[in-house]
Amino acid sequence: MSETPPNTLQYRFDGPEDAPVLILGPSLGTTWHMWDRQVPELAQQWRVLRFDLPGHGGAPAHPAGSVAELTARLLATLDSLGVQRFGYAGCALGGAVGVELALRHPERLASLALIAASPRFGTADEFRQRGVIVRTNGLEPIARTAPDRWFTGGFAAAQPAITDWAVQMVRTTDPGCYIAACEALAAFDVRPELGRVGVPTLVLVGSEDQVTGPAEARTLVAGIPDARLAVVPGASHLVPVEQPAAVTDLLVTHFSTAWQPVFDSATGQTALPAALAKPVPAQPAQVQPIAEIAPAPADPAPAGRPDPYDTGIKIRREVLGDAHVDRELAQADAFSADFQDFVTRYAWGEIWDRPGLDRRTRSVVTLAALVAAGHAEELAPHTRAALRGGLTPDEIKEVLLQTAVHCGIPAAHRAFRVAQQVIREETTPVE
Description:
By secondary structure, this protein is an alpha/beta fold. 49% of the residues lie in helices and 9% in strands. Strands 1-3-2-4-5-6-7 form a 7-stranded mixed beta sheet, sandwiched between helices. The chain starts with 10 loop residues before the first strand and ends with a helix. About 10% of the residues have low confidence.
């Protein structure tokens, strides 16, 4: 166990002190105990390090709002321990950290396993709405439905103790850290960059995973050079928990045959220059790979000042949601396309991107301005945006009450009707 400053992660070690380090990264809502069944065998060959996400498993509640920030905290933890080079296996959000390591810090990574992972986890709207539900109702609705997302029905029915353990893991997570992790997943999208992953990679997925299933796994394998795919039959999202023996065997095979470079016990874990890292094909795992490999196109190098349209469309989607922006853009034609371009560049790329106000404050100002100007037709998307940007229903209520004083009761009355409907839609838990 560790004392945990804000810039590091809670961790534990198992296995010989002089063995190469293998890191196991958890999924959102879980703790390092999701790997309990893998550790005894892995720890025979590796110094196994497990970590908890912020606010999970009793870890200090220092929210991290991006995968990059989580990765930076993991690296700071490893730096404090003197660990320079390591293998990494991560599940779901933990897998996103693994991809981030491979893309931004390849000199640190010797081998990679991505479990129940994806280059993009659903849609940004889905995770932002989950954050709204947690902010409004707490984690209980998410906890109750966790077994349905994580396990097959047969496993959940046959293993009530594990099902109860899963529910309790989520219940005891810090809500603010859970919401921040949802934001991290909402913003994560590395599809164009997969071709730059240059470490030996195993992609492992449960055949019955309805969260990040075989289709997402095949996308990873198609994009990552020389990646191998293993599909574990009869398992859902938390495949290390549901099929522990199969996952352990696959990890042992992968990390035993695809570790680059070979650990040198005489000199310690010494990082190689990133330019020397080349993918080393692994031997086929026990489950035969079933996806073809195709390189992803290289990213063009950015030049000069970023186009405000690029910034604007990103912020517009983050604030209003993909579904709303897609509808607006789809309705544009030759007559209105220039207006949509203008709005994206200047309203979103210039004003909403200014550092003088945070997005919560901008949402407050926007709601008040829309009520004052009588633009009730714009209140629904901006109420939804305010919720997903961090305002609570009670805070939105206070904004609208303030407008009743300064903008008039009829205008506020219309606003309350619109906001009430949106809040009901956004904060009703999905059973």
